[in-house]
Specification:
Layout: E1 4-6, E2 9-13, E3 19-28, E4 32-40, H1 49-64, E5 67-70, H2 73-81, H3 83-86
Parallel strand pairs: 4-5
Antiparallel strand pairs: 1-2, 2-3, 3-4
């Protein structure tokens, strides 16, 4: 799924402009961000979209040389479940 980017977030709106998926993060100093929120509309859950959103933030932060503090419960669980994938980016 393709996501749009705006300040400190990636998101997807449906054809009517309703937000159906979102991840947000907060800059913390020069070299970290706090991943604080993920949302996926109930109609889309179970399709891996939340993980795609988190991975989009991971890609962005890797390109900027920043680490991620996963505060959002979903992101925290994802980082714990797949340490081999996320340990290099986790602050």
């Amino acid at each position: 799924m393709e996501f749009e980017k705006s300040e400190n977030r990636f998101f997807k709106n449906d054809e009517f402009g309703k937000m159906i998926a979102e991840v947000t993060y907060i800059p913390s100093g020069k070299d970290k961000v706090i991943l604080d929120h993920t949302f996926v509309d109930p109609s889309l859950r179970g399709q891996g979209i939340a993980a795609q959103l988190v991975d989009r933030v991971v890609e962005e932060m890797q390109s900027e040389g920043k680490k991620i503090v996963p505060l959002c419960p979903y992101a925290k669980e994802l980082f714990n479940r797949k340490p081999e994938k996320y340990k290099m980016i986790e602050a």
